[in-house]
Amino acid sequence: MTAPQLDLYYWTTPNGHKITMFLEEAALPYTIIPVNIGKGDQFKPEFLEIAPNNRIPALVDHAPKSGDKPVSIFESGAILLYLAEKTGQFLSSFLNARYEAIQWVFWQMGGLGPMAGQNHHFSNYAPEKIPYAIDRYVNETNRLYGVLNKRLADRDFIAGEYSIADMACYPWIVPYKNQGQNIDDFPHLKRWLTAIEQRPATQRAYAKAKEVNPDFGQPTIRTDEERKLLFGQTASVVK
């Protein structure tokens, strides 16, 4: 087996799963470096060197195609694009199909992820339940589910062939119950979700999550300190 040339700085969140899904699909050897965000690992200087926004995931490629010095990348969408270009997989070389996938990656990064994230926060983690905030984000998540359901009405995957667009979106749909959504209301999305769940690479990626974090699937916030680390940050943490 080829020695791993990729270091993945990872924790068991939707954005982390995106990258393990790609790496497992592409059969690329990689080393996981856990970044336990509940313990504050994301603020360690060595992590901030490659991820200045103190968020996972981040990637270091010690053998880039250029043959130059190692490349480090943060932001999950950028990592997916990088890996697709590095391997020539899961992103078409044909212009129209390529941008079909890329625009849906941007859709997830700018819409589905942030809106579902705020949904999770106000519905599940906020110490004060604010009805307006909960309704705002549950409803917007619902709208976005509708957009994706319509997109999938006449195709198997978001850009036709399985691509980085599917890997970007899938982990954010998996916790639909926590987002206050009834997946049966979105039959095309439900079919797509099941198809990706059954892929061997997806199963391997989510098994990795359980290996790295035995508490995966349990509530993320269990203590006031964890709440402060995840939700109480100001500019002081990046000085």
Automatic annotation (TrEMBL):
InterPro entries: Glutathione-S-Trfase_C-like, Glutathione-S-Trfase_C_sf, Glutathione_S-Trfase, Glutathione_S-Trfase_N, GST_C, Thioredoxin-like_sf
Residue stretches making up the GST N-terminal domain: 3-91
Sequence ranges assigned to domain GST C-terminal in this UniProt record: 94-216
A matching Pfam family: GST_C
CDD domains: GST_C_YfcG_like (cd10291), GST_N_Ure2p_like (cd03048)
SUPFAM superfamilies the UniProt entry points to: GST C-terminal domain-like, Thioredoxin-like
Gene3D superfamilies in the cross-refs: 1.20.1050.10, Glutaredoxin
Top-level EC class: oxidoreductase
Superkingdom assignment: Bacteria
MF annotations from Gene Ontology: oxidoreductase activity
Enzyme Commission no: 1.8.4.-
Alphabetically ordered keywords of this record: Oxidoreductase
Family from the record: Belongs to the GST superfamily.
Name recorded for this polypeptide: GST-like protein
Source organism of this protein record: Rhodopseudomonas rhenobacensis
Lineage: Bacteria, Pseudomonadati, Pseudomonadota, Alphaproteobacteria, Hyphomicrobiales
